[in-house]
Amino acid sequence: MTAGGPAALAQQTPAGVQDAVRLAPLEYIGGMQPVMDNSIFAHVLLEQFEDRAAGNGQQFRYDGQGWIGTDINKVWVKSEGTVGTRGQFSDSDQELLYDRAISRYFDLQAGVRMDLDNGPTRTWAAIGVQGLSLYFFDIEATGYVSDRGRTAARLKGSYDILLTNRLILQPEAELNFYSKSDRGRSVGSGLSDIDAGLRLRYEVTRKFAPYIGVTYAGYFGQAQPIAHSNGDRVQDIRFTFGVRSWF
To answer: What are the TM regions of this chain, as residue ranges (predicted)?
Structure first.
């Protein structure tokens, strides 16, 4: 710091530079005020890391996402998948997205999704929004166009109900829609499947929270006979326990 403090430093700054800073236009993005701190940050959230138990066997499921970037621009990675009762890796997709803040609570995301598991691989272009809606619902809405001319959409939502400061009940749901059936991936046109859960977690620390819950996975419409012919359960309710963590 210059001797004499900020006042002395301001006096040493040329008048032309002071005027340029004072008169420079402020860049508002989606109504957000500009911030002085535009450093690079990173965040990883493992939302689901759980065992799903039922009388016909167990399943393991994970669902996580992470990002790195500034307050305005980020690179976002999402991944989810299930290891079923027969040991097959299914319902898995990975997304790599560019993320741009468009308002105080919402981001626009665009990039690529790949369905990678024991089934046939599919590649999709993706565009959607993610953020915190009115009454603090976490929501995602994404549209996809595949390399085979198919379209799809995914809606995800969750809500944290604070029973205490550390005991939290979280309902969540994911709905998938497709324009065409795809027998190889057990999807049907229209509303194809829903994965939902009600989880009660206890935050031992803010970054580590074991939970128990009940989950539901079901196929609908044209996806039901496809799933049945592939040997999958059309409707499935399971007791669930797992860990939620972030860093």
So the answer is: none
